Amino acid sequence: MAIDKEKIKKAVRMILEAIGEDPNREGLRETPQRFADMLEEILEGYTNIEPEYTLFTEESDLVVISGIKFYSLCEHHLLPFFGLVHVAYLPKGKVIGLSKIVRIVQFYARRLQIQERLTMQIADAVARVTESPDVMVVSEAYHLCMMMRGVKMASPTVVAALRGEFRKDNYLKKEVYDIIAPYRLYKLPF
Ligand code: ZN
Questions:
Q1: Ligand 1 centroid vs 146 CA: distance in angstroms?
Q2: Choosing a second label site near 65 at 20 to 30 A (CA), which of 27, 41, 100, 178?
Q3: What angle do CA 174, 178, 181 make, to 5 degrees?
Q4: Are 88 and 62 in contact, with CB atoms under 8 Å apart?
Q5: How far is the CA of 78 from the centre of ligand 1 (A)?
Q6: What is the pTM of this model?
């Protein structure tokens, strides 16, 4: 789905008028164009084709990739939410390149999202791609819609998706939390 930039530009001009601004003043003249270009970039998950992934044959007990940065856009308020994703899985004789995991995260983050769905989609994609049913994904995000307005939260929202063994085995789950502990997000100082 290609985005309709002309339509976005018209809509932005209307919003500027609706809030009492003059869309023709110097600082705002290029804003509709800039906004349309920005949306095209940060929502590229809609237009991109899911990348191909190469698997390597390798023995490993537990793989944890922590601290993957992401930026997404909340579908309820169209404001950014952003933070870190930590991915763990138990390989079934095959491991996936680490940069591929990062690409999976970006692919699902760059569209209108809610954090819960983003976390589930990443877990499902990692399970599909690694051919392992044992996957755990923890996401932590600051939501500008909860920081700038409403409850004015300064702490990140945490969502976990547990699949297979990670759901059954508390020790395994705890091990992942221990490993990712140094890479977690902390409460902001305001
Ligand atoms: Zn929101």
A1: 7
A2: 41
A3: 130
A4: yes
A5: 7
A6: 0.90
Domains of the chain: 5-42 (no CATH), 55-185 (3.30.1130.10)
pLDDT value, residue 54: 64
Ranges of residues in the chain with a pLDDT under 50 are none
Counted residue by residue, the chain has a size of 190
3-class DSSP state of 85: strand
Q: Where are the alpha helices (DSSP H) in the chain?
A: 5-18, 26-29, 31-42, 98-109, 115-130, 144-147, 165-168, 170-180
- Dist. CA 97–CA 133, nearest whole Å: 18
Nearest to 113 by CA among 147, 154, 79: 79
Return the structure tokens found at 174: 């705890």
Which residues are catalytic, by number? 74-77, 115, 143, 145
